[in-house]
Write a structure and sequence with these properties.
single chain; mainly alpha; Methane Monooxygenase Hydroxylase, Chain G, domain 1; 86% helix; 0% strand; elongated
């Protein structure tokens, strides 16, 4: 257990940041899952609507350091490509 005041404060800060990071990561996963579920169901309109919600969540996650910027862009690109295939 931490003995100094600064170490105790660091533990409190880490616990607080962990909660925030978990919530952000969960929000991104849920948004992506909604898009993937719509794609799997073959519902293009629902997939497009879900993508409008998921893309900002992914880019926000990249901006806040939850995921790498290129990883977020790659995820958006791949999901968009899968939605485009539904039109065919």
């Amino acid at each position: 257990m931490a003995t100094t005041t600064s170490a105790r404060k660091a533990i409190r800060q880490i616990a607080h940041r962990t909660e925030i990071n978990k919530a952000r990561r969960s929000r991104v996963r849920n948004a992506v899952r909604q898009v993937e579920d719509a794609i799997d169901a073959g519902d293009r309109n629902k997939a497009i609507a879900a993508m409008k919600h998921a893309e900002p969540e992914l880019m926000r996650a990249a901006r806040t350091g939850q995921m790498h910027k290129n990883a977020a862009s790659r995820k958006v690109s791949r999901l968009t490509k899968r939605i485009a295939k539904l039109a065919k």
